[in-house]
Amino acid sequence: MIPGVRLVVLGKQGAGKGTQCVRLSHHYVVPHVSTGDMLRGEVKAKTPLGVRAESLMDQGELIPDEMVMEMVQVRLSERDTRGRGFVLDGCPRTIAQAKDLDEIVHPFGLELVVDLNVPTDLVLKRLASRRVCVDCGANYSTAAPPMVNWTCDVCGGEVIQREDDTEEAIRRRLDLYEAETAPLITWYIERDLLVTIAGTGSPDAVTRRVVGAIDVRRQKMRLA
Ligand code: ADP
């Protein structure tokens, strides 16, 4: 049987986290747990959490740690994620969230934290041209649109520019990434969990690099 994985993927907005996480979740046959997608689902369903989160998300602000971590705790306690693992996308985003996550995944722990590294000028270009399906979240760009008329190739949903992909909200998210999320890189290096992967090149090439890094890690753990 294909082994699962307990993976966190970090990276700036536009680094290709979403795309890679979907691929990795298929490769390891584990759920893709994206806090951004979960929060957008809450907004769409107009739940109390969604109602509180909507304007914060549109402005590119972070949702309070407790609100996000409660949602993550519930998802990571389910049978599938507890049994085979997960690819966690968009969380943790602060040191406080990383501490909570440690408790949530106890006693199994995380297998690896991947930092997808892409230069800021490239992520700005990617974000300006990014388009997403409102229904399934599939990613497109103005350079690689869906086949027919901004209708999603996967599910037939409408493909649009995200509300928070305005220049102002993008700038705010990148600033918050530097201030709140970048410190996690040192935090996970100190715990010997971090591997940095170049997020440039084709999506296939990036996936191969990540899978290769996980193989190397497993080899090392077997030898230890
Ligand atoms: P991006 O990486 O482009 O910002 P996401 O889809 O990961 O996109 O997140 C969209 C928004 O959802 C964030 O700007 C933030 O408002 C909220 N969000 C997602 N994950 C978290 C989190 N772990 N902590 C706080 N806010 C979050």
List keywords for this structure.
224 residues; alpha/beta; Rossmann fold; 5-stranded parallel beta sheet; 3-stranded antiparallel beta sheet; 10 helices; binds adenosine-5'-diphosphate
Task: Produce a short descriptive summary.
The chain has 224 residues and is α/β, with parallel strands linked by helices. Helices cover 51% and strands 16% of the residues.
Element layout with pairings:
Elements (H helix, E strand, L loop, with lengths): L4 E7 L5 H12 L3 E3 H10 L3 H11 L6 H12 L2 H5 L1 E5 L5 H11 L6 E6 L2 H10 E4 L5 E3 L17 E2 L6 H15 L1 H8 L3 E5 L4 H21 L1
Parallel strand pairs: 1-3, 1-4, 2-3, 4-8
Antiparallel strand pairs: 5-6, 5-7
The chain binds adenosine-5'-diphosphate.
CATH architecture: 3-Layer(aba) Sandwich
Number of helices: 10
**Regions with little confidence, pLDDT below 50 for 5+ residues:** none
Distance between the termini: 23 Å
Classify the beta-strand content into a percent band: 15-25%
According to CATH, the homologous superfamily is: P-loop containing nucleotide triphosphate hydrolases
| Tally of structural domains | 1
